[in-house]
Design brief:
mainly beta; Jelly Rolls; eight-stranded antiparallel β-sheet; 7% helix
């Protein structure tokens, strides 16, 4: 009864706009209820806030429409159009299936670390034809036994080709002697676009500042874990690098660079933002640039590299 009274208060404005003014007291003890064309037993199933229209009939007008059942009058209610989202079960699964766009088919490497068919092989152990010194001359690093090794004082080497977003596979090895301490032990670095350094360092039982150890984004991000192998053992970096985006008109940094790094199969940098170009002193900064080379650093220790390839993304 309480629900009926509430409903009557809600639908009262509809009653005033009806063709003839009818008072609910005139309908008798219990009128007939019709919701969306169906007779209902009570108002328990009616949500008064969802009603679009309400019509009230009594006497002959009511019985002509619904017969003797409407002798006490009839209240005809129409619900508002449904705006609810269809239930998941009612959806056709084919609507969300994409068939027209096909992923390119490539051939993966035969073994872990082997270059897939769409990779650009930068160094396969045979020559340095895809590399140059910082001045553009031929590299003077040592090429031996399928690896290329830093020659102290010769300077960095860099790819002749420039890159934006890439997947990089690179293997490196610090000297087996394990000489020196901290930053003076097996130090080199991989620079993306020539600006953003992923640190290479013998960090096996070798203490240094945490954001300068192997796998760090130098002086920016500490690796999640130290996954270093012993000096003299080959180590692997698998990297996804996303280049920064700059406004063509204002030069403003729209999006920073991002990097994800796996060290010996263990994730150590998980899509971290790079705050700017690597700085030894002071804070990193961004300057507008386009694509850039991959550079390998000469830090004075004979670090070796092999099996270097990239995939442009």
């Amino acid at each position: 009864m309480k629900k009926l009274l509430i409903l009557l208060l809600v639908i009262y404005p509809f009653i005033l706009s009806a063709q003839q003014s009818v008072k609910f007291e005139d309908l008798g003890s219990k009128p007939l209820y019709v919701l969306d064309g169906k007779i209902i037993e009570s108002l328990k199933s009616v949500n008064s806030y969802n009603l679009e229209t309400v019509q009230i009939f009594k006497g002959k007008e009511a019985t002509e429409k619904y017969g003797e059942a409407a002798k006490n009058g009839v209240i005809i209610m129409t619900s508002k159009p449904s705006t609810s989202v269809p239930s998941r079960e009612s959806l056709d699964p084919r609507v969300t299936e994409v068939w027209e766009i096909k992923a390119p088919v490539i051939t993966p490497g035969k073994n872990a670390g082997d270059a897939p068919s769409d990779a650009i092989v930068l160094f396969d152990g045979k020559d340095l034809s895809k590399w140059s010194s910082s001045s553009g001359a031929n590299p003077s690093w040592e090429l031996k036994d399928g690896a290329v090794t830093v020659v102290k004082g010769s300077g960095e080497i860099k790819t002749k080709q420039e890159f934006g977003d890439i997947q990089l596979h690179i293997e490196w090895r610090s000297p087996s002697a394990g000489e020196g301490e901290g930053q003076n032990r097996g130090n080199s670095g991989i620079f993306f676009q020539g600006l953003y350094e992923l640190q290479v360092l013998d960090s096996y039982e070798n203490q240094t500042y945490s954001n300068g150890q192997a796998g760090s984004i130098y002086k920016q991000h500490i690796p999640l874990v130290n996954a270093s192998r012993k000096p003299g053992e080959w180590q692997v970096y698998d990297v996804v690098f996303t280049a920064p985006r700059f406004s063509e008109t204002s030069g403003r940094t729209i999006a920073p660079a991002y990097i994800t790094v796996f060290h010996n199969g263990v994730i150590i940098q998980n899509h971290v933002p790079i705050a700017g170009s690597t700085q030894y002193k002071g804070l990193p900064v961004y300057k507008v640039h386009g694509k850039g080379p991959i550079a390998l650093q000469d830090h004075g220790t004979p670090v070796s590299y092999r099996n270097i390839w990239v995939r442009e993304l």
